[in-house]
Write a structure and sequence with these properties.
The protein is mainly beta. The chain has one domain (39-270): Acetoacetate decarboxylase-like. It has 5 helices and 13 strands. The chain has helices at residues 3-14, 50-56, 91-94, 123-133, 198-203, and strands spanning 34-48, 62-63, 70-84, 96-107, 110-120, 137-148, 156-166, 179-191, 207-212, 215-222, 228-238, 254-265, 269-270. Strands 1, 2, 3, 4, 5, 6, 7, 8, 9, 10, 11, 12 and 13 form a 13-stranded mixed beta sheet that branches.
Protein backbone atom coordinates (compact mmCIF):
# COMPACT_ATOMS: atom_id res chain seq x y z
CA UNK A 1 0.00 0.00 0.00
CA UNK A 2 1.45 3.39 -0.99
CA UNK A 3 1.38 6.47 1.22
CA UNK A 4 -1.57 8.00 -0.63
CA UNK A 5 -3.72 4.89 -0.26
CA UNK A 6 -2.77 4.56 3.40
CA UNK A 7 -3.75 8.18 3.96
CA UNK A 8 -7.19 7.52 2.46
CA UNK A 9 -7.56 4.45 4.67
CA UNK A 10 -6.68 6.42 7.81
CA UNK A 11 -9.14 9.16 6.87
CA UNK A 12 -11.89 6.59 6.41
CA UNK A 13 -11.53 5.41 9.99
CA UNK A 14 -10.83 8.86 11.46
CA UNK A 15 -14.09 10.16 9.96
CA UNK A 16 -16.03 7.82 12.24
CA UNK A 17 -15.61 10.28 15.13
CA UNK A 18 -17.81 12.75 13.22
CA UNK A 19 -20.76 10.37 12.76
CA UNK A 20 -22.38 10.51 16.17
CA UNK A 21 -26.13 11.06 15.80
CA UNK A 22 -26.90 7.36 16.26
CA UNK A 23 -24.83 6.85 19.43
CA UNK A 24 -26.67 6.38 22.74
CA UNK A 25 -23.97 8.28 24.67
CA UNK A 26 -20.94 10.52 23.85
CA UNK A 27 -17.59 9.32 22.59
CA UNK A 28 -14.69 8.81 24.94
CA UNK A 29 -12.64 11.97 25.47
CA UNK A 30 -9.36 10.06 25.09
CA UNK A 31 -7.88 9.29 21.65
CA UNK A 32 -8.77 6.04 19.91
CA UNK A 33 -5.92 3.58 19.51
CA UNK A 34 -6.94 0.85 17.06
CA UNK A 35 -8.89 0.28 13.86
CA UNK A 36 -10.67 -2.82 12.62
CA UNK A 37 -13.07 -3.78 9.86
CA UNK A 38 -15.48 -6.63 10.60
CA UNK A 39 -16.76 -8.57 7.59
CA UNK A 40 -19.24 -11.34 6.78
CA UNK A 41 -20.85 -11.41 10.20
CA UNK A 42 -23.60 -13.72 11.35
CA UNK A 43 -25.48 -12.63 14.47
CA UNK A 44 -27.06 -15.86 15.76
CA UNK A 45 -28.99 -15.29 18.99
CA UNK A 46 -30.86 -17.55 21.33
CA UNK A 47 -32.96 -16.69 24.35
CA UNK A 48 -31.52 -18.25 27.49
CA UNK A 49 -32.86 -18.55 31.04
CA UNK A 50 -32.28 -15.33 32.98
CA UNK A 51 -30.99 -17.31 35.95
CA UNK A 52 -28.22 -18.86 33.84
CA UNK A 53 -27.28 -15.51 32.31
CA UNK A 54 -27.01 -14.03 35.80
CA UNK A 55 -24.67 -16.83 36.89
CA UNK A 56 -22.35 -16.12 33.96
CA UNK A 57 -22.08 -12.35 34.47
CA UNK A 58 -20.06 -10.68 37.26
CA UNK A 59 -22.14 -9.17 40.08
CA UNK A 60 -20.77 -5.71 39.27
CA UNK A 61 -22.70 -5.72 35.98
CA UNK A 62 -26.46 -5.58 35.48
CA UNK A 63 -28.06 -7.90 32.96
CA UNK A 64 -29.53 -6.05 29.98
CA UNK A 65 -32.85 -7.62 29.00
CA UNK A 66 -35.18 -7.14 26.04
CA UNK A 67 -38.85 -7.40 26.98
CA UNK A 68 -37.77 -9.29 30.08
CA UNK A 69 -35.69 -11.81 28.11
CA UNK A 70 -31.94 -12.53 28.15
CA UNK A 71 -30.09 -13.37 24.93
CA UNK A 72 -26.79 -15.04 24.12
CA UNK A 73 -25.07 -14.41 20.80
CA UNK A 74 -22.75 -16.58 18.71
CA UNK A 75 -21.09 -14.29 16.18
CA UNK A 76 -18.67 -15.64 13.55
CA UNK A 77 -16.98 -13.08 11.29
CA UNK A 78 -13.72 -11.98 9.68
CA UNK A 79 -11.31 -9.39 11.03
CA UNK A 80 -9.78 -7.10 8.37
CA UNK A 81 -7.37 -4.16 8.63
CA UNK A 82 -6.61 -4.81 12.32
CA UNK A 83 -3.82 -2.45 13.33
CA UNK A 84 -2.92 0.30 15.79
CA UNK A 85 -3.74 3.85 14.77
CA UNK A 86 -1.40 5.20 12.07
CA UNK A 87 0.15 1.75 11.46
CA UNK A 88 -0.33 -0.13 8.15
CA UNK A 89 -2.06 -3.49 8.16
CA UNK A 90 0.13 -6.58 7.81
CA UNK A 91 -1.27 -9.58 5.94
CA UNK A 92 -0.16 -12.21 8.46
CA UNK A 93 -1.36 -10.24 11.48
CA UNK A 94 -4.26 -8.01 10.43
CA UNK A 95 -6.62 -10.43 8.67
CA UNK A 96 -8.13 -13.49 10.41
CA UNK A 97 -11.43 -15.14 11.38
CA UNK A 98 -12.92 -14.60 14.83
CA UNK A 99 -15.88 -16.11 16.70
CA UNK A 100 -17.52 -14.55 19.77
CA UNK A 101 -19.96 -15.79 22.38
CA UNK A 102 -21.53 -12.83 24.16
CA UNK A 103 -24.13 -11.69 26.65
CA UNK A 104 -25.72 -8.25 27.06
CA UNK A 105 -25.11 -6.14 30.13
CA UNK A 106 -25.07 -2.56 31.34
CA UNK A 107 -23.30 -0.46 33.91
CA UNK A 108 -25.06 2.74 34.84
CA UNK A 109 -26.58 4.16 31.67
CA UNK A 110 -24.18 2.39 29.27
CA UNK A 111 -25.32 -0.87 27.68
CA UNK A 112 -22.56 -3.09 26.37
CA UNK A 113 -21.29 -6.58 25.65
CA UNK A 114 -19.84 -9.13 28.05
CA UNK A 115 -17.85 -11.84 26.28
CA UNK A 116 -17.96 -15.41 27.50
CA UNK A 117 -15.34 -16.39 24.92
CA UNK A 118 -13.57 -15.12 21.82
CA UNK A 119 -11.89 -17.53 19.41
CA UNK A 120 -9.41 -16.25 16.83
CA UNK A 121 -7.11 -17.80 14.26
CA UNK A 122 -4.21 -15.44 14.98
CA UNK A 123 -2.08 -16.49 17.99
CA UNK A 124 -0.36 -13.10 18.23
CA UNK A 125 -3.70 -11.27 18.29
CA UNK A 126 -4.93 -13.72 20.93
CA UNK A 127 -1.91 -13.07 23.14
CA UNK A 128 -2.23 -9.27 22.76
CA UNK A 129 -5.96 -9.31 23.55
CA UNK A 130 -5.47 -11.45 26.66
CA UNK A 131 -2.53 -9.38 27.88
CA UNK A 132 -3.76 -5.85 27.15
CA UNK A 133 -7.55 -6.25 27.19
CA UNK A 134 -7.93 -9.12 29.69
CA UNK A 135 -10.51 -10.79 27.48
CA UNK A 136 -11.20 -14.58 27.40
CA UNK A 137 -9.57 -15.21 24.04
CA UNK A 138 -8.71 -18.67 22.70
CA UNK A 139 -6.66 -19.79 19.75
CA UNK A 140 -8.56 -21.87 17.19
CA UNK A 141 -8.10 -23.45 13.78
CA UNK A 142 -10.51 -21.47 11.62
CA UNK A 143 -11.63 -21.03 8.01
CA UNK A 144 -14.03 -18.58 6.42
CA UNK A 145 -14.78 -19.28 2.76
CA UNK A 146 -16.99 -17.33 0.39
CA UNK A 147 -19.33 -19.47 -1.73
CA UNK A 148 -21.31 -18.38 -4.78
CA UNK A 149 -24.87 -19.58 -4.24
CA UNK A 150 -26.30 -18.15 -7.47
CA UNK A 151 -29.46 -16.91 -5.77
CA UNK A 152 -30.60 -13.29 -5.89
CA UNK A 153 -28.60 -10.06 -6.02
CA UNK A 154 -26.23 -10.97 -3.21
CA UNK A 155 -24.90 -14.28 -4.47
CA UNK A 156 -22.44 -15.24 -1.77
CA UNK A 157 -22.74 -17.38 1.34
CA UNK A 158 -20.08 -17.99 3.96
CA UNK A 159 -18.83 -21.45 4.92
CA UNK A 160 -17.34 -21.07 8.39
CA UNK A 161 -15.34 -23.55 10.47
CA UNK A 162 -13.76 -23.14 13.91
CA UNK A 163 -12.14 -25.71 16.19
CA UNK A 164 -10.63 -24.40 19.42
CA UNK A 165 -7.11 -25.63 20.10
CA UNK A 166 -6.21 -24.17 23.48
CA UNK A 167 -6.04 -20.90 25.30
CA UNK A 168 -2.81 -19.17 24.42
CA UNK A 169 -1.47 -17.37 27.47
CA UNK A 170 1.22 -17.63 30.10
CA UNK A 171 -1.52 -18.38 32.62
CA UNK A 172 -1.52 -21.92 31.24
CA UNK A 173 -5.30 -22.28 31.27
CA UNK A 174 -6.67 -24.90 28.89
CA UNK A 175 -10.17 -24.85 27.41
CA UNK A 176 -12.73 -27.52 26.69
CA UNK A 177 -12.92 -28.33 23.01
CA UNK A 178 -15.31 -26.16 21.00
CA UNK A 179 -16.44 -26.80 17.45
CA UNK A 180 -18.47 -24.58 15.15
CA UNK A 181 -19.30 -25.35 11.54
CA UNK A 182 -21.99 -23.51 9.60
CA UNK A 183 -23.03 -22.06 6.27
CA UNK A 184 -24.81 -18.73 6.34
CA UNK A 185 -25.65 -15.73 4.22
CA UNK A 186 -27.91 -12.71 3.72
CA UNK A 187 -31.59 -12.67 2.83
CA UNK A 188 -33.32 -9.54 1.54
CA UNK A 189 -32.33 -5.88 1.47
CA UNK A 190 -29.98 -3.99 3.77
CA UNK A 191 -31.71 -2.08 6.56
CA UNK A 192 -30.83 -0.06 9.65
CA UNK A 193 -32.43 -1.22 12.88
CA UNK A 194 -34.90 1.03 14.69
CA UNK A 195 -34.37 2.08 18.28
CA UNK A 196 -36.43 -0.12 20.52
CA UNK A 197 -36.35 -3.10 18.17
CA UNK A 198 -34.78 -6.45 19.02
CA UNK A 199 -32.34 -5.98 16.11
CA UNK A 200 -31.14 -2.70 17.61
CA UNK A 201 -30.80 -4.27 21.07
CA UNK A 202 -28.67 -7.13 19.76
CA UNK A 203 -26.30 -5.17 17.53
CA UNK A 204 -26.00 -1.47 18.42
CA UNK A 205 -23.52 -1.82 21.28
CA UNK A 206 -20.70 0.68 21.75
CA UNK A 207 -18.62 -0.77 24.56
CA UNK A 208 -17.42 -4.02 26.08
CA UNK A 209 -16.97 -4.90 29.74
CA UNK A 210 -14.39 -7.18 31.29
CA UNK A 211 -12.96 -7.85 34.74
CA UNK A 212 -9.40 -8.35 35.92
CA UNK A 213 -7.95 -8.56 39.42
CA UNK A 214 -11.38 -7.84 40.89
CA UNK A 215 -11.80 -4.61 38.91
CA UNK A 216 -14.32 -3.76 36.22
CA UNK A 217 -13.04 -2.33 32.93
CA UNK A 218 -14.81 -0.81 29.95
CA UNK A 219 -13.56 -0.58 26.37
CA UNK A 220 -15.27 1.94 24.07
CA UNK A 221 -15.91 1.43 20.37
CA UNK A 222 -17.33 3.52 17.54
CA UNK A 223 -18.86 2.64 14.18
CA UNK A 224 -21.72 3.72 11.96
CA UNK A 225 -25.16 2.09 12.34
CA UNK A 226 -25.07 -1.57 11.37
CA UNK A 227 -26.01 -2.32 7.71
CA UNK A 228 -28.11 -5.38 8.56
CA UNK A 229 -29.87 -8.03 6.51
CA UNK A 230 -32.01 -10.93 7.54
CA UNK A 231 -30.01 -14.15 7.34
CA UNK A 232 -30.25 -17.86 6.76
CA UNK A 233 -27.94 -20.37 8.43
CA UNK A 234 -27.39 -24.10 8.58
CA UNK A 235 -25.40 -25.31 11.59
CA UNK A 236 -23.55 -28.58 11.01
CA UNK A 237 -22.02 -28.41 14.51
CA UNK A 238 -22.21 -25.81 17.26
CA UNK A 239 -20.87 -26.56 20.74
CA UNK A 240 -20.06 -22.93 21.56
CA UNK A 241 -22.93 -22.71 24.08
CA UNK A 242 -22.50 -26.18 25.53
CA UNK A 243 -19.15 -25.37 27.17
CA UNK A 244 -20.82 -22.55 29.09
CA UNK A 245 -23.65 -24.76 30.28
CA UNK A 246 -26.20 -22.83 28.23
CA UNK A 247 -29.38 -24.53 27.08
CA UNK A 248 -31.42 -22.10 24.95
CA UNK A 249 -35.09 -21.58 25.67
CA UNK A 250 -35.87 -22.17 21.98
CA UNK A 251 -33.88 -24.18 19.46
CA UNK A 252 -34.38 -21.79 16.52
CA UNK A 253 -32.08 -18.74 16.62
CA UNK A 254 -32.74 -15.16 15.59
CA UNK A 255 -30.47 -14.54 12.58
CA UNK A 256 -28.97 -11.37 11.13
CA UNK A 257 -26.16 -10.77 8.64
CA UNK A 258 -23.83 -7.82 8.00
CA UNK A 259 -21.41 -7.68 5.09
CA UNK A 260 -18.93 -5.17 6.53
CA UNK A 261 -18.45 -2.35 9.01
CA UNK A 262 -15.48 -0.16 9.96
CA UNK A 263 -14.72 0.33 13.66
CA UNK A 264 -12.31 2.20 15.90
CA UNK A 265 -11.46 1.17 19.44
CA UNK A 266 -10.20 2.76 22.65
CA UNK A 267 -8.00 1.21 25.36
CA UNK A 268 -9.89 -0.37 28.22
CA UNK A 269 -10.18 1.78 31.34
CA UNK A 270 -11.09 0.90 34.92
CA UNK A 271 -14.51 2.04 36.09
Amino acid sequence: MNIKDFGRLQSRYADLVNDLDHRPYPLSSSPWIMRQTWANLLFAHWELPIERARELVPDCLELDLYDGRAYVGVVPFEMHQVAPRMVPAVRGLSFFPELNVRLYVKHGDRPGVYFLSLDAANPIAVWIAITLYHLPYYYAEMRSTTINNGDGQDKTDIAYFSRRVTRLASRGIHSPACLFEARYGPVGEVFASERGSLEYFLTERYCLYTTWTNRLYRGEIQHKPWPLQKAHATFATNTMLDVHGIKPVHTEPHLLFARSIDTIEWAIEPI
